[in-house]
Amino acid sequence: MYQSNEVTGKQKAAILLIALGPDISAQVLKHMKEDEIEKLTLEIANQRKLSQEQKDKVLNEFHQMCLAKEYISSGGLDYAREILEKALGSDKAVSIINRLTTSLQIRPFDFARKTDPSQLLNFIQNEHPQTIALIMAYLQPEQSAAIVSALPPERQVDVARRIATMDRTSPDVIRDVERILERKLSSLVTQDFTAAGGVDSIVEILNRVDRTTERTIIENMEVQNPELAEEIKKRMFVFEDIVLLDDRSLQLVLREIDNKDLALALKATASEVANKVYKNISKRAAEMLKEEIEYMGPVRIRDVEEAQQKIVNNIRRLEESGEIVVSRGKGDEIIV
């Protein structure tokens, strides 16, 4: 007799589609890849006549998974676990939660991402900088930006450096940090090693803080770790971000750019970026630039990136001198 733990996931999927009937199954298959459809179709064809008991077992398991997912979405992992334990028993609940945790790729500190940054700040501002860095690495960049902006300057630098140099963290460490907040908020536990932090993470955060906070962190990091500071600065404003500049600022930038560098920079970029540039130069200059790009022929990606970096460096120089304003976090307010 069929036992749910004796068949593969693919077999269960085939049984489920058979039980759902052709109309619903057809709608499900529309959302799957061709190779997945082929495998499932073959599995369905190989299925023998099913008893009602077999159908019921698969449908019941599917229903339990759907309920668990709904519980997680509405109340979090702990809420889902509590409800499932009452309904199905501890072992069954743990089995379902473990499978969903993997399939949904639930990240640590999910509860914190639903919490106001000012409330989080109250809980973590006196913790060790490494603890703050770990929590911030898993938050939304906007949340982390709000928190780092409110920290004392010396702590801002320390936390930013720790986020930038963070790589992978063991589940035990994550669980220990989560327990710090458990008394006040929910906790979320994962079994897999998870990656967070790194240069990209701190760049996303710094791009959302006010200019004063950013300058404090970067200037201090240039003293403490010049190589890391330079890597962060390179990524803080990428070439494609010129679409965020106002027309006046972009015109100032373009006046100082060599046409050859500009043509190279636009050779392999999105149309949105190119159109922004064309809009801010004369019609004749735009036509000449398009012709130069067209007749340029194949170019090396490295040359394109170098040309784009020249323009980015020029933007940062003009920003430092106060000639242009790059929109950042809520802390930047233009006075008119």
UniProtKB/TrEMBL annotation:
Chain segments annotated as coiled-coil in the UniProt record: 30-57
UniProt keyword annotations, A-Z: Bacterial flagellum, Cell membrane, Cell projection, Chemotaxis, Cilium, Coiled coil, Flagellar rotation, Flagellum, Membrane
Entry's localization field: Bacterial flagellum basal body; Cell membrane
InterPro entries reported in the protein's UniProt record: Flg_Motor_Flig (IPR000090), Flg_Motor_Flig_C (IPR023087), FliG_a-hlx (IPR011002), FliG_M (IPR032779), FliG_N (IPR028263)
Main localization category: other
Domain of life: Bacteria
One Pfam family linked to the record: FliG_M
GO cellular component, one term: bacterial-type flagellum basal body
Biological process terms in GO annotation: bacterial-type flagellum-dependent cell motility; chemotaxis
Lipid bilayer topology: Peripheral membrane protein
Keyword Cell membrane part of the UniProt annotation: yes
Keyword Nucleotidyltransferase: no
Domain Flagellar motor switch protein FliG middle: 117-191
Positions of the Flagellar motor switch protein FliG C-terminal domain: 219-325
GO molecular function, one term: cytoskeletal motor activity
SUPFAM superfamilies cross-referenced by the UniProt entry: FliG (SSF48029)
Residue ranges of domain Flagellar motor switch protein FliG N-terminal in the record: 7-109
Family of the protein in this entry: Belongs to the FliG family.
NCBIfam families recorded: fliG (TIGR00207)
Protein name per the record: Flagellar motor switch protein FliG
UniProt organism field: Sporomusa ovata
Lineage of the organism: Bacteria, Bacillati, Bacillota, Negativicutes, Selenomonadales
